[in-house]
What we know:
The protein is mainly alpha-helical and about 140 residues long. Helix content is about 55%, strand content about 0%.
Amino acid sequence: MRTQESVSTKIPHRRASELPAPAQPAPTHRIAAEAVPLFRLPSAGDPAPPVERVGALCGWAAGLGLVGTFIAVRAFVAFFGVVPGWYQPAVVGVGVLGMALTVGAFLAVHQQRLPWWLLSGATAALAANLLLVFSAP
């Protein structure tokens, strides 16, 4: 039979240098880890993008906005007429897609080619909306 005196309840003291290192989190998927910095707002420590690039992005986006305004006015007038049921969601959806691509271009201003690809996609969405709006009855 054991007595209380023979059972030790003391926990040995360890120094911080003797403790095992905390486990590192498992690496995430490579594509997801690389895609995160593509779309982000610049922080205070980031270098400024070239002025020429920002000016060209702003000019292209302004042109898209100007043409998009005319398309939106025409679509608004068409909404009061008799149009097919798919017309309004299609026009609004393609317009929102174009705006999202334009915003993505500004969020990717530090990338080399991505903003230009995104603005090209926004231009294609604008052209599709142009065809939708001016082909409606």
